[in-house]
Batch of 3 targets.
Target 1
Amino acid sequence: MRLKCIKLAGFKSFVDPTTVPFPTNMSGIVGPNGCGKSNIIDAVRWVMGESSAKNLRGESMTDVIFNGSKGRKPVGQASVELVFDNSDSTLKGEYAKYNEISIRRKVTRDAKNAYYLNGVKCRRKDITDIFLGTGLGPRSYAIISQGIVSNLIESKPEELRVFIEEAAGISKYKERRRETENR
Ligand code: ATP
Ligand code: MG
């Protein structure tokens, strides 16, 4: 499975609809300080269901909406879509039949979130479930941002176990057990 492109609109500094393509297995994003490189990574985390504003370098969850700049008024909503190539059927079960999987999240100023899977409205849980155990997800080790390596080195054994469980693919079973126990 490969990320094909990210489509952003109204997200942080990406006020106008922008498509960032990833045409090969390795892509680099370069640009001057403050041009929005890290905002793209924040967008990936956000669309996969990140629910902590701090992890997105903001104070509140609506801080991801473009809040205006010189000559541009703030906008009312932010939207990010990730398009994955699933032609190798990495995603099993009901998703295996889709060559392309698109997930989208939208938030408005009144902090209402909406999630879409291949264009159809879904729950946040539907999105997080897809990626559980794949190594992808808002907090997964697939995204190594500034400070993560030192966090790993300094983490307590029980925190380190969360990373290992995700890598080993057992976190989804633990999550399901938790859900069953809470019913
Ligand atoms: P560096 O090389 O320093 O790491 P970068 O390319 O990673 O820089 P980012 O941190 O992605 O840069 O982008 C920071 C820019 O995004 C700042 O100019 C900031 O004003 C802008 N920005 C962040 N949130 C918003 C928002 N909600 N609305 C408008 N602009 C925003
Ligand atoms: Mg940066």
Note: Strands lie at 2-9, 18-21, 77-85, 100-108, 113-117, 120-122.
Target 2
Amino acid sequence: IGNKIIDFDTIDSTNSYAKEIAKEVLHGTVIISEEQTGGRGRMGRSWTSPKSEGIWMSIILKPDIPPMEGMKMTQIAAASTCWAIRTVTGLEAYIKWPNDIVIDGKKVCGILTEMAGELNKIDYLIVGIGVNVNIEKFPVEFRDIATSLVIEKGEKVDRRTIVIELLQQFEKLYMDYINCGTLEKSLAIIRNYSAVLGKSIRILKGNQELRAEVIAINEEGLLRVRLEDGKEELLISGEVSIRGS
Ligand code: BTN
């Protein structure tokens, strides 16, 4: 992972570019840009990616696994990013399942995993990671929900060091998954630094809002919740928001 890194000064979206070249490049190729003019988030949202103030990157993966397993790459990315932020900055970063990293309840990183292939085979996976590193100030409407490493730490943070730690950790956790077929090592991090485990959360499903207690993150990395009526359910994905935040 990261043996080949393609870096840009500016680009629309590293995920979109990764998709264009994915077929022609090797597994593990990384695209990184100083700035994105059309950064994409989940659910069709846009992702603000100001110049030199964050890590805007995409990892191209070509694992020989069933498409159903593809979303596990998001878990590996969340675990490695959370771990790298903690190691480099000492900040108390937590993973808000399935793909956000938060500090102090505010989002500092988002992950967008996209997949191409057929029913029984993955052609490639793009894992897009956006980390707000040195963004000093957010627009008023984001101040309660977004933060950056510089805001939390009170001093600038070196983006390079985080990228290196992140990719090294990603490689380790990815290889562990490929060799063992389980998410064991990633799950240890995900459970240890979970922002939702044991908490009361709101689940947004379409336009339905449910309240639930998170009781476990299972072996597959799925969230086991207990709904208000006492029924238990496994959440595969969907928008999860922690109550009170
Ligand atoms: C989200 O939380 O909605 C996911 C945000 C993902 C942002 C990253 S930045 C690098 C990569 N390229 C994109 O266009 N998006 C992802």
Note: Residues 55 and 117 are 27 Å apart (CA to CA).
Target 3
Amino acid sequence: MKPISKSSKLADVCYDIRGPVLEKARQMEEEGQKIIKLNIGNLAVFGFDPPDEIVQDMIRNLPAAAGYTDSKGLFAPRKAVVHYTQEKNINGVTVDDVYLGNGASELIVMALNALLDTGDEILVPAPDYPLWTAAVSLSGGRPVHYVCDEQADWTPDLDDIRRKITPNTKGIVVINPNNPTGALYPPEVLREIVEIARQHQLILFADEIYDKTLYDGATHTSIASLADDVLCVTFNGLSKNYRSCGYRAGWMVVSGPKKHARDYIEGLNMLASMRLCANTPGQLAIQTALGGYQSIKDLVCPGGRLARQRDLATDLLNQIPGVSVVKPKAALYMFPRLDPKLYPIADDQQFAYELLAEEKVLIVQGTGFNWPQPDHFRLVFLPNSDDLADAIGRIARFLDHYRKR
Ligand code: PLP
């Protein structure tokens, strides 16, 4: 029989967070081995329960939420999102500018698909949350990576952004707070990015899904709030701030000079219609979540479980010879560096396999986040303190063997 091949559209599409190393971990689990998973930001499985009112709301609404809704979503949760944009000082957003989706992921793919033609370029951070690079490629565009500077707390290198703009550049992706680095960008940096977008007439794609997962009393500035005259598409959702990844509830907001983007918005509406609507119970949960007590505060405040685990993981990693990590200001991840003099890693996927095989700890290699050198990895600090300390102890032991090879 003729072999059935995947589409050539997928030739450059890569999503290593759920890639071959995870497959290997699954096999090991099937064989009865216990793996410590530091690979994925899935809060609920680590005992971070969603707020009770969201769960109750899902249960209560289920019987009456079996129908399709408007393609952009139900009015009331979209109105709740409008209020949220007002709280975040994003001007001029109406219910019509809000799209609800099955998680932010669906909307990210939609926003790029509606925009890009073959050869169009989108500036994407390195490291990035790899859905962005994958979605640009899948949409026929060309991801062009700008570097985030580890020495400057992983903030974007503005000169690198400027250098990489060409006549084909259509937009800049800003992931703030950042996955995988845990960076939180100061307003000055955001203002500069807005200025670049303004000068070159680029769209800003703002992924702000961790905007309430902030440590040390930090505050978050939405880039769209600084950019009334620049078209911004801002993404957010319940997955992280409300520990509800599985409910697949997200939103996207278009702000700025929408009149100039009528055709693009028509494209967005078309794609939203083609997938009919987001799951209805998830839509209703958005309204409940945004209005209720913001219990994430209890987890990120000093002494809160997430804050404690962040501190522990940072301290333990920084004690390992040749390992350095910038303490995250936000989100659920850190992106430690392995000094290449001590750890001359040629292939960091192989490194992740070996760590898994020898110590049963699952991480994701840095190149999986489009980081150009094989000298970083991403770690999720979600397991409880004992498991986290155990896992980092195993990483330290593995690295000790690695140095002595
Ligand atoms: N954006 C970032 C930066 C993420 O880290 C994730 C998930 O890890 C997503 C988007 C996807 O979110 P959702 O669950 O809403 O699809």
Note: The chain has 13 helices and 15 strands.
